[in-house]
Amino acid sequence: MSRVLARRRWSQFRQNRRALFSLILFISLLMVALFAPIIANDKPMYVSYRGMPYYPLSEFVSDKNLGGTLPTEADFTDPYIKEQIKLHADAIYPVIPWGPETIDYEESAALPAPPSVRHLLGTDDQGRDILARLIYGLRLSILFGLALTFCSTVIGVLVGAVQGYFGGRTDLIIGRFLEVWGSLPQLFILIIVSSLIMPGFFSLLFILLLFSWTSLTGVVRAEFLRTRNLDYVKAAKILGVSDWQIMKRHILPNALIATTTYVPFILAGAIVSLSALDFLGLGMPAGTPSLGDLIRQGKENLQAPWIGLTAFLSLTIILSLLLFIGEGVRDAFDPNVTKEKL
Predict the structure, then answer these.
(1) Percent of the chain whose predicted confidence (pLDDT) is above 70
(2) Which residue, 39, 195, 207, 254, has fewest beta-carbon neighbours within 10 Å?
(3) Residues of the chain with pLDDT > 90: what percent?
(4) Within this chain, do residues 58 and 152 fall inside the same structural domain, yes or no?
């Protein structure tokens, strides 16, 4: 894609105010998620104990370093360590002084505690801060969604490219396989496989990748079928350019334009899939902060509506942002709109 055409499409995207605002807000949420450890953590970012500087977020600080007797890592929720820091140290804490696994033993309200100055979104049934778990849950969902989207796009584009460019028997075999694969009960297979494999980030990535890559194959195949018979492709063949070079240099850039419009929707689907598995208890290991885990806790604690509402609104907002971004990208890459602007 030329720079001039890229600028025109970016200009077209910016004209969609809702899509542009959604992109800015999504990037902001992504930044908050990426920097979650320095936003929500029970460890201080900086401690100066008796003149010695420490950075607990990036280095090992033992109990002995802060006046204790143990060589193990200092527990900054320990009342003794808190007292030592109060008397002999200067400390800078994150904005939210709670980690996703930190249990507030000093909370006086019955658990799950309602929103308060101490916990802005309340706590769950174990006394853990919901806002901290929400931030870390967003990080997990977004990073997992981006990883799954990237892997799905790579596999889908490769399979669709081979299927569309070579055609004939190759197209027939891959097409029949996709028909059979797509007719399988995906949800039941995902549940069965996820119950057999040790849960984890990469195992779940593999499980969901089994089906997610097929969504792009048809789009890429159609683009390769349309482009492979154009004059410049035939000329490249006559000049002796290899099939893979033709696919990579002459056809793939056009196919990626159509693929780009689907990426936000694939990302949204990946986040929903992870949340669904976590909700069913078949996703990440128990206790891992995630949107699905928050939704499950909301269901199990109906007497604490702030848990369910927080999880529901968070998932709704992030999916809405991705859908609005997808609409803006689709309009920006619409050939009819591009022709009108030209």
Answers:
(1) 96
(2) 195
(3) 25
(4) no
Spatial distance between the Cα atoms of 303 and 140, rounded to a whole number of angstroms:
27
* In contact, 278 and 297? CB cutoff 8 Å: no
> Which long-range contacts does 84-91 make (Cβ < 8 Å, 24+ apart)?
84/49, 85/44, 85/47, 85/49, 88/49, 88/50, 89/47, 89/48, 89/49, 89/50, 90/47, 90/48, 91/44, 91/46, 91/47, 91/48
Other CB atoms within 10 A of residue 334 CB: 14
The residues near 114 (Cβ < 8 Å, ≥ 6 apart) are 122, 304, 306
Residue 138 lies in a domain: yes
- Dump pLDDT digits (tens) for 305-331: 989 899 899 999 999 999 999 888 888
Q: Around 273, how many Cα atoms within 13 Å sit in the side-chain half-sphere?
A: 27
Q: How many structural domains are present in the chain?
A: 2
Residues 87 and 203 in one domain: no
pTM: 0.85
